[in-house]
Automatic annotation (TrEMBL):
GO terms for cellular component: cytosol. Residues 63-152 form the SCP2 domain. It comes from the Bacteria. InterPro entries: SCP2_sterol-bd_dom, SCP2_sterol-bd_dom_sf. This is SCP2 sterol-binding domain-containing protein.
Amino acid sequence: MPDDSNGSLTDELAGLDFAAVSPEEFARIVKGLSGRELAEVMRGELRARVIGEVFGRMRQQFRPEAAGRLNALIRWKITGSEELVYETLVADGTCAVTEGRSEAEPRTTLVMGDADFLKLVSGNGNPVTMFMMRKLKVAGDVGLASGLTRYFDIPKA
């Protein structure tokens, strides 16, 4: 996605209807942006829209056949200008997503910055590599965290 300045890139992305962007197109957009550009995009109102849309799609991207009998609460903490917390409950072949922190104890918690979150959920980041480079922090069940991507249909850009 060409741009002359960060302002025009942000303006261009702010004008997108993220609900109409396919997962494959989203993956291509993220792949085409540098870490600095991703950080710039993830400022202000656009950040909440993008993250909200990603979590809003998790139920559709969920692969119940891959999850089998998995029963786990996964807490996601996305750091940045402010910490956003979402929880994904995988149980009985379903996936439910809620915004905010519940009182329940998660089986695993994933903590990462905005740009790394976008890379992970768009298939542009390898979770094991991100963990080894300390871009992704995991508390709790590391084995579950390392295999989470197989439970979701994540496009490749």
